[in-house]
Amino acid sequence: MTQSVVVQVGQCGNQIGCCFWDLALREHAAVNQKGIYDEAISSFFRNVDTRVVGDGGSISKGKICSLKARAVLIDMEEGVVNEILQGPLRDVFDSKQLITDISGSGNNWAVGYKVFGSLYQEQILEKLRKSAEHCDCLQCFFIIHSMGGGTGSGLGTFLLKLLEDEFPEVYRFVTSVYPSGEDDVITSPYNSILAMKELNEHADCVLPIDNQSLFDIISKIDLMVNSGKLGTTIKPKSLVTSSAGAVKKWHQRPFDAMNNIVANLLLNLTSSARFEGSLNMDLNEISMNLVPFPQLHYLVSSLTPLYTLADVNIPTRRLDQMFSDAFSKDHQLIRADPKHSLYLACALMVRGNVQVSDLRRNIERLKPSLQFVSWNQEGWKTSLCSVPPVGHSHSLLALANNTCVKPTFMELKERFMRLYKKKAHLHHYLQIEGMEESGFMEAVSSLSGLIEEYNQLDATKSMPVEDFPRLSIAV
Fold it and tell me: Ranges for the Tubulin/FtsZ 2-layer sandwich domain (predicted)?
């Protein structure tokens, strides 16, 4: 069994991370009711005997003593991390695996990357090495951060290069929250474009998330619940939108419900690596099968169902609807319409009471409405995990390498150019040692190159698919 380490950076990264660890504990508690430290739990948690001082307290099997998250928490403001350490999850985090400062990065990528990057490089490396030493077989680093602020975008992408240099064989999966057009950080286009260059060069897979899409999804569920259309069929212990375990408490804190959707994305992404099933998919298989070209590693995600239905025996129609919803633009975690764009590859990660025949039937049903590149018409990767999310009978995570991400990048570039043409706010960046204006041009050039690669793929959409003759086998 492999292990993964979660590195949560900045306010957004730590808030999503906090939700993730809460949901992960609930999920394993629901499955592992005997309290035995097993391989599934070991993928994200260490078992520690707190009576032993130092690093000698790790326990590889037997009863669970004290679980510690395989995590590194980084923020250049203390607020969110302090809140976590005072909350119900305080004992899950190893105090030696935290890095905080007081001043913050002031919504400035250059401060996060250039100033705090060099200042904290050795400390960050030390924490990462320590996390790696606690793993038997480290497979992946999950980085959670936002693109619009200073610490998440700057320090978050700085450590990507560190990880590549220090752990070249370990996969780097990045969950990046992109700013919406109504973002209240004026410099977010600068921060996002500068961070994008680092993601292009140093990430293995990026899961872009759009705040506006998350908000729209939560609003839709809210409307359905309050209108009474779902009747009493919503289970109280659903983990998709509420870690509080009650639908009416979604909005205890700003972004709580939105963060929980992203946390569930990460849970479902790793479910096949943690639990048994008839079709397992490891994290390295996602990168191998879904990323045909190094820079085109941005995967659009959708999660269905978004609310919990009560019945366990799934009627075929309802199960088929789950597959249909995964390709609907209303269920994507960024504003995108994959059905009307070009697929390079697609992964379907199913959990719960679903058969291989259900999977194959739905792929055949949906294939005619989806356009794949001519050289990868059978570009499907599938997994079936027998353990459903808590409160669900079944769920589906779809990951699409699709040209529908291009409009998000084009809009970001337009917002960047509006500021950059006026040289607005540029002096805040250029006064940071090591930051030069050429860095902005290199970053926008990198993004333009990425957009052009998607343009070239889109240009092949109308090309006929070659039907190669198959080898005849004499029987």
Answer: 279-414
